[in-house]
Amino acid sequence: MVLETVELLREEIPVKQQPLTLPAHTKTGLVLVDLVNGFCTVGAGNLAPRELDKQISKVVKESVRLSKAFSEKKWPIFAFRDCHHPDVPEPPYPPHCLDGTDEAKLVPDLLWLENEPNATIRCKDCIDGFLGSIEKDGSNVFIDWVKNNQIKQILVAGLCTDICVLDFVCSVLSARNRGYLSPLENVIVYSQACTTYDVPVHVAKTNKDVVSHPQELMHHVGLYLACGRGAQVASEVFFE
């Protein structure tokens, strides 16, 4: 039933996407959203997968590929880590990615970014990384990163397509349109390097505290909404 619904959505609300080649002459920044143990590593926490999730594994693998390519080219990387204070809840979600725990750390295959000179790591305590980049003095770490690196376009990967990725993309697009992110022009979501979590309908029916969240369906919805807000969607990513 879910697969049939996904196919129907693809027909009724198609997401325009195509292969993307990143040119050497256009300054591109890579943005990684919440590739942390608490969302990606089996059994790591309340919002981590309970068993091996092929889609999440694929996203991590592709994000590692992109990160290594950007590192080799000395292109800028911005990685968000979901990170919460124990006394500050984030409803409707249970406690997750608490500050100082392994849940809030980047997945093992991306820990090297902590020592990557071209990478900026940002702990965020909210769904929207753009808002989570605001400092107490009103400055914004992400805006500064774009301006300091003179980034023309960003390539976005990570979790979850319909939640943190979507909220971040929408905020960035609004900020760009208002002139806060010059010289940023393009916001690109890489569909093969994004996904969301999976709570099948039959699981939700057996637990009154759980809302169904079919992975493929909600991933498609997230891509569609991002595209509708003005983001580009890439089906594949290559380098010149």
UniProtKB/TrEMBL annotation:
InterPro entries: Isochorismatase-like_dom, Isochorismatase-like_sf, NIC1. It comes from the Eukaryota. Residues 29-205 form the Isochorismatase-like domain. GO terms for molecular function: nicotinamidase activity. GO terms for biological process: pyridine nucleotide salvage. Gene3D superfamilies: Isochorismatase-like. Belongs to the isochorismatase family. This is Isochorismatase-like domain-containing protein.
